[in-house]
């Protein structure tokens, strides 16, 4: 069967350079813009697709499905997710097939990256965290990929993850369904990445709902391959309890794989916390990317608090530095210990507030101090600014907003008594989450009211103040 394009054909300002691949369904081309020299990937269905698809799935309109894949990629482009290649253009050619042009990602497919001899355990940890985080963010906006596999994930720039091939993705979000109207089909995914419960249900003639558990189980198999540095053919037979125990993230892997067996397995955000904790215990904390706080993580922390309240008990005496680091490790957060000062530094980043630096000061035997430094710098004694901070103090109750007129720094302070009884984990987490939320809300309010005065801190000062 002849190719749809020839070398040198023009498409959306790009010129075809070479054919990358010809699969059972589609063809992929490498393109380049002759002016900017930017590379792109051109993807679409090959000419005999109707015959091929007809043999596989009767009544399945694979051409329409390709249009929907382009719509899903466009939806994710609207969200500006860094782990999805950017969609440049999409065109329907005269015979009805659709080709779309996306960002060219230079790197290795995960299947080949896994088997590289020079990949460190820290790099494997980073890729694992990035992959699970990407899936959780897809799920948060209502999209299930349903075809996560070693050849649909590209590792670029060392450890960055790019997810490609959304041909079987399912849109669950009502908002996205309204906007992009993508149909879904019963997918014929790669068997080893498909949850075993799906095969059982099909064998029993039951309807199978494609939900987040499909992706989570697939990630479980992928993470096993990542850390074992080898591919598996039959996960249920090869991924044994003994094999899991030899890996640095056995608990998180177990939770991911449980998604393929039962509908009551832990959700993605909960597993992300477990994965970070596993990696820290294994001494791979350097492989954990900086945490990004959003409402999903905050809600997950609240759920974990509720789960742990029954078996967590306060101890006598003040909260020690080791207690704080243990709390932060259980939450899967990145931190830096300043042992001489008896302080811990935690960096958080949100879209609206930017980078926020929190200092937890355990040097006082009676009060644990938590400060959010450099929230904003506003070198003004404007009366409206002081009124805004006063209003914030009124609303925030125990958290205090302070403005330093010398350097213009706005920071938040929280004091928690611990003279007689150490602060239990659930209380510390609740207070810390409240601090993060308050900082994000106040930063957004200041930016909205004083756009010309408010600037984000370029660097956090290593200090703690009352």
Structure, described:
This protein has 466 residues and is of the alpha+beta class. The protein folds into 3 domains: 10-103, Phosphorylase Kinase, domain 1 (2-Layer Sandwich); 107-289, Transferase(Phosphotransferase) domain 1 (Transferase(Phosphotransferase), domain 1, Orthogonal Bundle); 298-449, Yope Regulator, Chain: A (2-Layer Sandwich), CATH 3.30.1460.70. It has 15 helices and 17 strands. The chain has helices spanning 49-56, 62-79, 110-114, 121-140, 174-180, 196-203, 212-228, 235-238, 241-245, 250-258, 268-281, 295-308, 321-330, 383-396, 425-449, and strands at residues 10-11, 14-22, 26-32, 39-45, 87-92, 98-103, 107-109, 143-144, 153-156, 160-163, 170-171, 335-338, 343-350, 354-361, 367-377, 400-403, 409-417. The strands form 4 sheets. It has a 6-stranded antiparallel β-sheet with strand order 1-2-3-4-6-5, with helices on one face. A 6-stranded antiparallel β-sheet has the order 12-13-14-15-17-16. Strand 9 (153-156) and strand 10 form a beta hairpin. Helix 4 packs antiparallel against helix 11 and helix 12 (295-308) runs antiparallel to helix 15 (425-449). It is globular.
Give a quick precis of the structure.
This protein is α+β, with helices and mostly antiparallel strands and 466 residues long. Helix content is 38%, strand content 21%. Strand 3 (26-32) and strand 4 (39-45) form a beta hairpin.
- Count of strand segments: 17
Strand composition percent:
15-25%
Q: State the end-to-end distance.
A: 74 Å
Structural class: alpha+beta
Radius of gyration: 25 Å
Kindly state the percentage of residues in helix. 25-40%
Number of domains: 3
CATH superfamily of the largest domain: Transferase(Phosphotransferase) domain 1
